[in-house]
Amino acid sequence: MSTAKKEYKRVTVKSLVEMKQNGERISMLTAYDYSMAKIVDAANVDVILVGDSASNVMAGHETTLPITLDQMIYHASSVIKAARRALVVVDIPFGRYQSDSKEALRSAIRIMKESGAHAVKVEGGEEIKESVKRIIQAGIPVMGHLGLTPQSIYKFGTYTVRAKEEAEAEKLKKDAKMLEKYGCFGIVLEKIPANLAQEVAESVTIPVIGIGAGGGVDGQVLVVHDLLGMTHEFNPRFLRRYMNLYDEMGKAIARYVDDVKSRDFPSSEESY
Ligand code: KIV
Asked: How far apart are the first and last CA of the chain?
């Protein structure tokens, strides 16, 4: 297996499968707005996820459940303008694909048409298979999401690791094969044991992207605000922080406040 990196002008769902085949790890990161997406894209992140984690990170909700389809489309249409290279995947929000596959398709079509995104992501397996099938039949690429699926947080009642018990692990493995069979181009596995995640990644031909799922999968995804240390109260074991922007930004803003109060800002050079 080679680890040589091929250059991609634009990452597509096909490129991701190629990366898996070539043993090249896939990088995926969230973004919810134009300015952040520009930085993420310029850093050669392969996939930008307009995650419904925007509900927490951007809107301050406790869960991902309240965010609406219109809000997801707004975030996605800002991100898409900045993404020159990355594949842009958008979460279909809670309540828009679980009850009715026709509504699921209408939601996916709205996301694709109104934001210009390249693909959608949905959470769940067997329970949502009709929605997955219908969206893919309409020509829209779908990414699955299994394990700790945050839209089901009230069913789980806790954010602890999923699929530690055999029954849940077996269901997850079946769901992954089913998502592959129906034509999903990739699967996110969230917060499950590393050996199970690796087994799933090895059992399917489509890329498996992990978050809290160990290093044996085909790629990794994080929430960009967590990676940059802008969120400082969220400290799961799987998170590697590359900066502490919460403190750095706070210090910079405090200096600005001091400079305004002391009349140091603006100086004559900063005035017309
Ligand atoms: O919404 C999101 O950010 C996600 C990732 C955590 C995978 O679904």
From this structure: 61
